[in-house]
Write a structure and sequence with these properties.
By secondary structure, this protein is mainly alpha-helical. The chain has one domain (about 15-120). The protein contains six helices and no strands. It is extended, with a radius of gyration of 19 Å. It holds the Pfam family DUF6247.
Length: about 120
Amino acid sequence: MTAQPYGPGPRLAPQKIRASLHADRSPRNIRACLPEDDHAAFDAGYREALRRAADELDLTPVHECVESWRWLAILKADPADYARMMQTADRVQQLAERGEPSGGIAFDDAFAERLRARVTRA
């Protein structure tokens, strides 16, 4: 199953878009699953990755580009969820810039807690 391009007409449900992106990881499908506003940036990034891959004789830039855009397409499958996520990220960034607590926990604390949980389970 591949997604239909965004644009005029009926839009696929977010879960169908996400299922398509899990089943078909091709650049063509990823581009079709992205909002039209992202097509030019995807095309430019993909072409640059292809150029780098040709220069370096290494496909790593292509794989990284495609996977990065695939995750972005997954995130953007539900525009309302994506907008809320971006608003939250913006709010947390503003709090961090002012030196105020963001309501989260420090990475070191989260890591220590996960490590304790693993040791306890073992």
